[in-house]
Structure formats: structure tokens, C-alpha cells
Design brief:
2 domains; Rossmann fold; six-stranded parallel sheet; Quinone Oxidoreductase, Chain A, domain 1; 9 helices; alpha/beta
Length: 334
């Protein structure tokens, strides 16, 4: 592979529709940012799937190289803190939405977006974690800071077979929490049980509107789904329960009332991984190394795909055909 010619997936808008194709690009095509990275791995997140398939309004600048995550090696940088050969990881900062992202063998990015790869983690493992795992760790950290301990009771994880849910379940189990999982698909129970789920909450009630208050079941929850699911989660929280909400796989609406908040003292914490300050990112990545059972990453990663296979993986994700994480080896098949 030449640094002057390399492969990248490019999204272009044609007659109001998104066209995704793997193209040969030249170095001059890359954005005029201060750091050039030789990308080794990326990953497929829900947001990536929406962007690549065109099923969601994610892309804000055309043409665009998608991929909200990347990990690789610094080639050159005007920032003296980033030396050539240094391994780095990037998640968030609207990369893959507004700025060119990880589905490329080389990428130019802003140096302040990059975090040094933590000791004990390879670039491959970092992208097995990716934004999904980073978000999961943010959620667990937020529950701890809100005073949720394993002794408080059961923690519910919704969308537990997805990227965020899988990692959250594994982390919570390692930290000693009792986890109940909501998957929406009993066929995925064996997978989630291996990650540490003690029980499952699946049932037809999750597709129905919840009453303002339901029976108290959960000390805390991590929600990746939103909409009716999050409304029911809030209605079922114990007094003083805490919910970390980080996703909208089921919808962006929230059909609930103030009752859980003013009668049961429930706290709803919003989790954003995109604009987290760098200091927080470094701390969270350090916790990933300590608190995520790295031996389970292979099991959490459903499959590894090349750039040519990304589009199909994105469609499969939105069609509910995947569980866990999808790793993208941008150099495979090159």
C-alpha cells in the first residue's frame, strides 16, 4: 500500500440518496488537518450503519468517509506531543458525521481528537471496544458516581446483545453487580449469559405503553433503546434508582410522566460520548483496561469485516441480524 494511493469507503449523495463505495484516494484528497494517521482498525456502530445505508440523517457534509472510530499509528503531526509511530485511538468529535472518519487506510484528523492508546491494549482490542465500549464504560462510571453499588440491587441493561449492552454487561459482572438483560430476542440469551447476565427481562410488555409507575424492580439501569422501553424502565425503578441513558435504537421519543422523578426520586442521567473532554476520555480508556474483561472481547466481537464488507454489515446491524461488535480491518483484502 502506498501512502499516495489507498482505499477508503466514500459516501456520496446522488439524487437525494446515499451511495457508498470503496474508492482509491490520493493523499491530497484527505482533509487539511494537522495529524496523519495510518489506520489499522475501525468498527461498525449503530450510527455508522445509519450513515452508510442512508437510513438515518447522520451525514452532515458530502462527500464523507464514514466510521466514527479509528485506531492506528501516527505518521506525521504538527503537534509535538504526537510522535511518528505513536499508537492512538479516536472516538467521537463528530468524526464519521461531519468530519472524515475511520473507513480509510489513511486519515487526517485534528490532534486534539486523539488519545494515546492505553498500555495493555492493542489497536485491534481498542476497536473491539470502540465508541460502544467507551459509552458503556461512561455509563458504568456514571452509576458509580451516583452511588450505585452492587449491594443496592439488580442493574437492568437494555439492548444487552448490542455493542454498548454487551460491554456494559461484561463490565458490570466483573465489578460484582447482578445484571438482568433485556435483549428482545431469546435466541441471544446464551450469548449475553456468557457475558455475565444473571437473568432476562424479555416479554411482550416492553412493546406496550407503561403506566406512570409500575412495580419496583431495578436499582439502576443502562438504557440503549429509548422510547417505550426507557419509559417502562423509569416506571419500574426502585426508590432512588438511577438510569444512564445513552441510545435511541427504539426511537428518540420518551412517552413518560414526571411520576418516577417526583414520587420515587429516580435520576435520569444522559450519557454523551461524542464531545467528552480529553481528560475524561483518558480516564475512561484507562478504566476499560482495568474493568473490562479483555478475554471476553473475542466473544463480544461478532465478526471482522473488510472495507468491501462494511455496507452489508451495516445493513445486517439495522435489520437486527447481529449481536455484539463488528470490527473493521481497513487493510484486509488490500
Amino acid at each position: 500500500m502506498s501512502i499516495e494511493r489507498f482505499r477508503a469507503m466514500v459516501l456520496r449523495e446522488e439524487e437525494g440518496k446515499t451511495r457508498a463505495a470503496v474508492e482509491q484516494l490520493g493523499r491530497d484528497a484527505l482533509p487539511a488537518e494537522d495529524t496523519l494517521v495510518k489506520v489499522e482498525y475501525s468498527t461498525v456502530n449503530f450510527k455508522d450503519a445509519l450513515a452508510v445505508t442512508g437510513r438515518g440523517k447522520i451525514v452532515r457534509s458530502w462527500p464523507l468517509v464514514p466510521g466514527i472510530d479509528l485506531a492506528g499509528e501516527v505518521v506525521e503531526s504538527s503537534n509535538p506531543a504526537l510522535r511518528p509511530g505513536m499508537k492512538v485511538v479516536l472516538t467521537g468529535w463528530s468524526v464519521g458525521e461531519k468530519y472524515w472518519g475511520g473507513y480509510s487506510q489513511y486519515q487526517r484528523v485534528k490532534s486534539e481528537w486523539l488519545v494515546p492508546l492505553p498500555d495493555g491494549l492493542s489497536t485491534r482490542q481498542a476497536m473491539m471496544v470502540g465508541t460502544a465500549g467507551f459509552t458503556a464504560m461512561l455509563c458504568v462510571n456514571a452509576l458509580e458516581e451516583a452511588g450505585v453499588t452492587p449491594e443496592r440491587g439488580t442493574v437492568l441493561v437494555t439492548g444487552a446483545a448490542g455493542g454498548v449492552g454487551s460491554v456494559a454487561t461484561a463490565i458490570l459482572h466483573k465489578l460484582g453487580y447482578t445484571v438482568t438483560a433485556l435483549t428482545g430476542n431469546p435466541a441471544k440469551h446464551d450469548y449475553v449469559k456468557k457475558l455475565g447476565a444473571a437473568d432476562f427481562a424479555d416479554g411482550p410488555q416492553w412493546a406496550e405503553a407503561a403506566r406512570p409507575l409500575e412495580g419496583q424492580r431495578w436499582a439502576a439501569a443502562i438504557d440503549t433503546v429509548g422510547s417505550k422501553v426507557l419509559a417502562r424502565v423509569l416506571a419500574e425503578m426502585h426508590y432512588g434508582g438511577v438510569v444512564a441513558a445513552c441510545g435511541l435504537a427504539g426511537g428518540a421519543d420518551l412517552p413518560t410522566t414526571v411520576m418516577p422523578f417526583i414520587l420515587r426520586n429516580v435520576s435520569l442521567l444522559g450519557m454523551d460520548s461524542v464531545m467528552q473532554p480529553t481528560a475524561n476520555r483518558i480516564g475512561i480508556w484507562s478504566r476499560v483496561v482495568d474493568d473490562l474483561p479483555l478475554e471476553k472481547l473475542e466473544g463480544i466481537t461478532a465478526r471482522t469485516v473488510s472495507l468491501d464488507e462494511v455496507a452489508q454489515a451495516c445493513a445486517d446491524m439495522l435489520d437486527g441480524k447481529l449481536q455484539g461488535r463488528v470490527l473493521v480491518d481497513v487493510n484486509a483484502g488490500a
